[in-house]
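tokens incoming
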């Protein structure tokens, strides 16, 4: 089965072709980062308009590059949520219209399920069950994954998502958008141990997170020492270290609590090198294994949507009508909400 995947939930336009037996056939991505950089964050209306401009040319490029015709596509998977309503509507309209025109099934895909399954695009992939750490610009969640579609939320953030905290801390120190990668690059030249930032919510039981206090701690430290040498580098390192150590503590807890030995890390912050090194160490200590998506599939992309859609289509699931609906707020545990 050849599935076309379409992603447009935020500021990346992505399309991909995934074949149930042959794997990923090809993918194409257009990032709007430059468009939003001048505003210091994603401007929803501009994001929607740019998806309108870019998705069709991207699709044409993908079909040309992979020598595929639309007639060969068996089904279309598109991100239906969560995300920006206008941006989601662009990909969903394209996906459903194509499906209608081609008389092929379509399937609404949950963006975070796409992230969670992204490591399955690698050659060495995890088996079910596992614990997933979803760390993106909008999510910080620990999820117990029993099998495809069976997701139990173990922990969530009470305020800012971890990527959001990275971005806001970076912005406060004048770093370019998106701040996460810029801040982690800066941290490489920081002085270890100059500042010690708190590890929020680790002194009490449970698997929830909170990162807004850490962001404020970084701001106060910056305001106090901003005229000293190397201050941004040292704050970047202290902030990143506190975030990474907090995530590691919670992952250890989740694995021990559930008796699982496999951890899957997904979402944009999964590209963070310090987090990758720390989690590899943790799983080595626990005699388990940690799985990361390839770096290119950590952030938003069409391949993860094509893959997730394909797995559900193989189970006989698909959209039951032609209505174009998006779900800007959609809990992963309620996948069936979009399967009317
Ligand atoms: O998954 P994603 O592409 O989009 C969402 O669905 O949110 O994640 C984007 C987030 C941004 O907050 C970005 O700053 C963060 O991931 N990010 C990073 C790194 N690369 C991306 N944060 C820390 N270190 C990185 N290397
Ligand atoms: Zn994402």
């Amino acid at each position: 089965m050849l599935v076309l995947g379409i992603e447009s939930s935020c500021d990346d336009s992505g399309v991909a072709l995934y074949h149930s037996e042959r794997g990923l056939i090809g993918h194409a991505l257009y990032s709007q980062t430059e468009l939003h950089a001048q505003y210091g964050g994603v401007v929803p209306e501009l994001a929607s308009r740019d998806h309108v401009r870019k998705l069709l040319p991207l699709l044409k490029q993908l079909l040309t590059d992979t020598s595929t015709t639309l007639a060969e596509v068996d089904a279309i998977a598109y991100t239906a949520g969560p995300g920006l309503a206008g941006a989601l509507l662009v990909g969903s309209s394209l996906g459903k219209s194509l499906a209608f025109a081609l008389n092929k099934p379509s399937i609404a895909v949950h963006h975070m399920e796409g992230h969670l399954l992204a490591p399955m695009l690698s050659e060495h992939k995890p088996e079910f069950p596992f614990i997933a750490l979803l760390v993106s610009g909008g999510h910080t969640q620990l999820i117990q994954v029993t099998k495809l579609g069976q997701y139990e939320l173990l922990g969530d953030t009470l305020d800012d998502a971890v990527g959001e905290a990275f971005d806001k801390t970076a912005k406060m120190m004048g770093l370019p958008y998106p701040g996460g990668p810029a801040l982690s690059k800066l941290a490489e030249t920081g002085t270890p141990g100059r500042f010690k930032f708190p590890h929020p919510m680790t002194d009490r039981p449970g698997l929830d997170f909170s990162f807004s206090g850490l962001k404020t701690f970084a701001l106060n430290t910056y305001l106090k020492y901003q005229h000293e040498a190397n201050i941004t580098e040292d704050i970047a390192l202290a902030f990143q270290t506190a975030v990474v150590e907090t995530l590691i503590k919670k992952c250890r807890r989740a694995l021990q609590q559930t008796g699982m030995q496999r951890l899957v890390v997904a979402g944009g912050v999964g590209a963070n090198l310090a987090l990758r090194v720390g989690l590899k160490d943790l799983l080595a200590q626990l005699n388990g294994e940690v799985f990361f998506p390839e770096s290119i599939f950590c952030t938003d992309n069409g391949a993860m949507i094509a893959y997730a859609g394909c797995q559900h289509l193989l189970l006989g699931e698909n959209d039951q009508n032609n209505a174009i609906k998006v779900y800007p707020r959609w809990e992963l545990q309620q996948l069936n909400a979009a399967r009317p």
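note: The chain has two domains: 2-117+297-334, 128-292.
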